[in-house]
Amino acid sequence: MNRIQNSLSLCTENDQRTWLAAACRAALTAGSLIRERYEQPHTIAMKGAIDLVTETDVASEAAIIASLAADTPGMPVMAEETVASHATVAERLWVVDPLDGTTNFAHGFPFFAVSIALLDCGKPVVGVVYAPLLDELFLAVSGCGARLNDRTISVTTTSRLIEALVGTGFPYQVEATLPMVIRQMQTVLPRVRDLRRAGAAALDLAYVACGRLDAFYEMNLQPWDTAAGILLVQEAGGMASTFAGAPFYPSSPDILASNGILHPQLLPLIR
Predict the structure, then answer these.
(1) How many C-alpha atoms does 72 have within 13 Å on its Cβ side?
(2) Which SS3 state, helix, strand or coil, does residue 70 take?
(3) pTM for this one?
(4) Mean pLDDT along residues 168-193
(5) For residue 131, which phi and psi values (nearest 5 degrees)?
(6) What contacts 179, CB < 8 A, 6 or more positions away?
(7) DSSP run (H or E) holding 174
(8) Which DSSP symbol is given to 195?
(9) DSSP class of residue 242?
(10) Phi, psi of 264 (to 5 degrees)
């Protein structure tokens, strides 16, 4: 718990400390559950042709909701697997992805995370992304910086595209989006050092924040995919926008997140 206590000291307001502690506790609780179930057989249900959910997603979500309810009573929650919560409208609410990278988890591919953010009037003010297999806790509070476990993190200073490692993702709506995905890859790939497609947007954004990626782009994401990660990027000194260059919000249809320096060079390639 030292990493959480050390991070709380960065907060400037008591509410921030309460919210950050609640998000961290919920993420670690869910992460422990996910880690225990990682190598066990999974029950898989389909939400779409290639969009799946496991029993661990559901159990993780229940654990998170219970933890948040205990620490922040009455605060509404929008959670991925609870469909009824998707219409939640509140000035302040938690946004939860109990297992970002479910396909990876189901196949034993060790790249997935828990993502929890608190939105205030549509903007993230607290964000936590926890990778349970590596025990890496990424966290950010608006105006207070971003951290990975016990250290402050920042985006890269890469200024040349050919030196950039860029992450991306493929939407579940393959047939409808494939032409655009291919066009983007055709324009981006020859101009950068390489592309990575790991399959967990929240963790990809955390990797931009800590300098493992120089940028990340994807379309058709949901608020629970981006709300925590985008705050990490911004508090680590990076920036985010839509493909059109407009300011990014968790409800935006597409995202480009970068170290900021590369943003003007990448935008024309992915539009």
Answers:
(1) 22
(2) helix
(3) 0.96
(4) 94
(5) -95, 105
(6) none
(7) helix 174-188
(8) E
(9) -
(10) -65, -25
Cα–Cα distance, 134 to 20 (Å, whole number): 20
* pLDDT tens-digit map of 45-88: 888 776 789 999 999 999 999 999 999 999 999 999 999 999 99
**Contact residues for 87 (Cβ-Cβ < 8 A; gap 6+):** none
Cβ–Cβ < 8 Å for 106, 42: yes
Both tokens of 233, joined, read 């990027």
Whether residue 31 contacts residue 132, with contact meaning beta carbons closer than 8 Å, is answered with yes
Chain centroid, CA 138 distance in Å: 10
CA distance 142 to 128: 12
What pLDDT score does 108 carry? 96
Is 60 within 8 Å of 99 (Cβ atoms)?
yes
Structure tokens at 3: 């990493």
d(C-alpha 101, C-alpha 61), whole Å:
14
Q: Return d(Cα 244, Cα 241) in angstroms, integer.
A: 8
